[in-house]
Automatic annotation (TrEMBL):
It catalyses: N(pros)-phospho-L-histidyl-[protein] + H2O = L-histidyl-[protein] + phosphate; N(tele)-phospho-L-histidyl-[protein] + H2O = L-histidyl-[protein] + phosphate. Its main location: cytoplasm. Substrate binds at K21. This is 14 kDa phosphohistidine phosphatase. Keywords: Cytoplasm, Hydrolase, Protein phosphatase. It comes from Catharus ustulatus. One of its GO terms (cellular component) is cytosol.
């Protein structure tokens, strides 16, 4: 049951364009392997806002999660580019290489880059 719920969790949910905060979240179900997902939204004032909403949504399906870190995304759909950078003051820097791989799977026709510089 937990494995089934986990398989229905999208790997990536980000806004369609703009510059916004993101978090890398490890999702777990009882007796199921963990899965890392990316969530990024412009409505969030803080990285914790995204994480808290994600945790609430997952809990409704019997899943738990932990935040692995955060950063920022610059999503430019007209150029088919996403740049991953920065860090979260509260959660620390996410592993941007992991985030980039998740984004490449979701956006295979995009140029996706990352850097540890910037905020």
């Amino acid at each position: 049951m937990a494995g089934e719920a986990l398989s229905r969790v999208p790997d990536v949910q980000i806004d369609g364009d703009g510059v916004f905060k993101y978090v890398l979240v490890r999702v777990r179900g009882a007796g199921a392997p963990a899965k890392d997902v990316v969530r990024g939204h412009g409505w969030a004032e803080y990285h914790a806002d995204i994480f808290e909403r994600t945790a609430e949504e997952l809990a409704r399906h019997g899943l738990s999660c932990e935040c692995l870190g955060g950063g920022r995304l610059s999503h430019r759909p007209e150029e088919r580019k996403i740049h991953v950078y920065g860090y979260s003051v509260g959660f620390g820097r996410a592993d941007h290489a992991v985030t980039t791989e998740k984004l490449k799977a979701e956006y295979p026709d995009y140029e996706i880059t990352w850097a540890d510089e910037g905020y």
